[in-house]
Write a structure and sequence with these properties.
With 265 residues, the chain is of the alpha+beta class. It has an eight-stranded mixed beta sheet with strand order 1-2-3-4-5-15-6-14, with helices on both faces. Strands 7-8-9-12 form a four-stranded antiparallel beta sheet, sandwiched between helices. The chain has a three-stranded mixed beta sheet with strand order 10-11-13. β3 and β4 form a beta hairpin. α5 packs across α7. The longest helix is centred in the last third of the chain and has 15 residues. It is globular. The model has no long low-confidence stretch (mean pLDDT 95). It holds the Pfam family GNAT_acetyltran. InterPro entries: Acyl_CoA_acyltransferase, GNAT_acetyltra_YdfB-like, GNAT_dom. It comes from Paenibacillus taichungensis. This is GNAT family N-acetyltransferase.
Length: 265
C-alpha cells in the first residue's frame, strides 16, 4: 500500500460514504483538523483505504478482496513502532471482519462497538429549556486554555495524542467540565471533530456517578454542537450499558454494531 500526501486525503472520501459518522476520527484526519495518516491500495484507482489517527483509532474501508493491500495492512498493524502504545481498528462490513479474522493482528482483542445517530427533534423535546447551571458544591467550567491544560496533563493524558496542543483543542474542540473542591470530577469533551461531526467522550469519577452529572454535561455539549452547526456523535463499547443508556437518554438512536480490533497487551 502507499501513503497519500495531505493534499490527496480528500480523494478517499467516496470510500467512506457508507461509514459516515461511524469513523469521525477518520474524517478529522481528512479534514486535517487532527493528525493522522492515509494509506491506499497500490493501483491508480483508489479502491481500499486505511486511515489512522494519532489517537490510535483506525478504520478500513473499500474493497475487502485486495489481498496485497490487506497483507500490507496486517504488516502495518503488527509493527509496534506504527502505534502510540494503543490502537483500535474499526471495520464496518462482515466481509472486512471475516478477512481480518483470517489473519493474526498481535496484541489485539476483537470487541463490538455500538454506533448511534443523533435525533435532534427527540433531544429538543426533552432538553430545550435546560439552562447551563450546576448546583453547589459543584462548579461548572466551559473549555478554556487553563482547564484544557489541566485536563490534558493531569486528568486524561490521552488528549495529548488526539489534540497536538492545548491551543488546538481550544480552537477546534468542545469541552464541558465539573469540579468539586478544585478537582475535576466529570467531563464531556470531543476527542475527534471532523466531517461536521463532534464525537462525545464522557468521564465521571466513580464516586460521583449516578448523580446526573454526565447527563447534564452531555446536554451542554450537544447544545454547543448545535450552536456551532456540528452534529453530536456517539459510539461506545456494546457491553458498556451505562454509556448505551445515556446515549438513548440524550436523543441518540442506535444504527448498528460492528467489530473493532482493540489493543490488548
Amino acid at each position: 500500500m502507499r501513503e497519500l500526501t495531505i493534499d490527496q486525503y480528500h480523494t478517499v472520501l467516496p470510500l467512506l460514504d457508507s461509514i459516515q459518522n461511524k469513523a469521525v476520527y477518520a474524517l478529522s484526519v481528512i479534514d486535517q483538523t487532527q493528525q493522522g495518516r492515509v494509506f491506499v491500495n497500490e493501483e491508480s484507482a483508489l479502491t481500499s483505504v486505511l486511515i489512522t489517527s494519532n489517537g490510535g483509532f483506525y478504520c478500513l474501508a473499500g474493497d475487502e478482496e485486495d489481498e496485497l493491500f490487506i497483507a500490507d495492512v496486517v504488516q502495518f498493524m503488527n509493527e509496534e513502532s506504527n502505534h502510540h502504545s494503543f490502537f483500535a481498528l474499526g471495520v464496518f462490513t462482515t466481509a472486512w471482519a471475516n478477512k481480518i479474522d483470517s489473519y493474526h493482528i498481535q496484541h489485539s482483542k476483537k470487541i463490538t462497538r455500538t454506533y448511534y445517530l443523533f435525533n435532534q427533534e427527540k433531544f429538543m423535546e426533552s432538553y430545550r429549556e435546560l439552562e447551563a447551571t450546576v448546583q453547589k458544591p459543584f462548579e461548572y467550567l466551559s473549555l478554556n486554555e487553563v482547564i484544557a491544560q489541566e485536563y490534558r496533563d493531569k486528568f486524561y493524558p490521552y488528549y495529548q495524542l488526539v489534540w497536538s496542543s492545548t491551543e488546538q483543542f481550544c480552537e477546534y474542540g468542545i469541552g464541558h467540565f465539573i469540579k468539586k473542591n478544585d478537582q475535576l470530577i466529570s467531563v464531556c469533551t470531543s476527542p475527534y471533530v471532523g466531517g461536521g461531526y463532534a464525537e462525545i467522550d464522557i468521564i465521571t469519577v466513580e464516586e460521583y456517578k449516578r448523580q446526573g452529572l454526565a447527563s447534564q454535561l452531555g446536554v451542554f455539549f450537544i447544545k454547543e454542537c448545535l450552536a456551532k452547526n456540528f452534529i453530536p456523535n456517539w459510539s461506545c463499547h456494546a457491553d458498556n450499558l451505562a454509556s448505551n443508556e445515556l446515549a438513548q437518554k440524550l436523543g441518540f438512536e442506535k444504527v448498528g454494531e460492528h467489530p473493532m480490533y482493540w489493543y490488548h497487551a
